[in-house]
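Quick one: structure for this chain?
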Amino acid sequence: MVQERGMALVTGASSGIGREVAIRLAKRGFRVIGAARRMDRLNQLASQYGNIIPKKVDLSDSENVEALCRYILEYPKPISVLVNNAGYSIRGALEDVPVSDVRRLFEVNLFALIRITQACLPGMRKQRNGTIVNLSSVAGKFAFPMSGVYAATKHAVEAISDALRAEVRPFGIRVITIRPGAIATEFNEVANRLTGDLMARTYPDYKPLYESSGAAIGRIFSQFTIPGPGIIADLIEEIVLSETPKPVYTAGPLVKEFLEPRLKMDDEAFDKYMAEKTGLMGLQV
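Got it. Here's what it folds into:
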């Protein structure tokens, strides 16, 4: 018989890492609130696992987020595990990205994460126990060209996580950051769809940059077999069940190739390293 555990909340639970995490926690005996936009997928998940509660939410809509927070605060049992997984990316040179798109990206990747965490913390403080897992990215420590706004949201997640970890440790609450590398989910497909055809609308000056960096990054990714979401879901399951989890975990491609050099090199050396790796060193337009 599976041991009954507490309540868990997983955002972005309709696909990818979030879906796999919800399943693993449900199998471990947690009652899981799976939150996402696509209710059809959530209902399908709930039909397979009786202890998954589907909850529709659009994290880009502040009223939707507030409704979810009221639901959390009014729920009879406190959330003991929060997995802030939901997030997406848009791409483009900074001059090509509309500020409205940047705002929406921050709403989903950062502001919703903050607000939902705020709603879960009172219950965790009351029980002097809780685990918060924030999905950052290897991009939380460096930025690829043409992905600056996405990296900015993840840099912010890193900062929030570091400060929060210190703030809530006295209450027995653990805050863990995960920095995945490239993972085979719908993430890339969604990023491409939301970004659209940059080459068709960018300024001519930028086209050589897109071409050079795209070719270089393509060569980098061709060296890897990209793992599925299970590698991160397994890690989150291990973290949640651990008595002594580490504050930060990394997994997947790009960790050794980019994250480790970033953590070892000074700024000048890493700037040169990135320019060379992404095909922009010495490019003149």
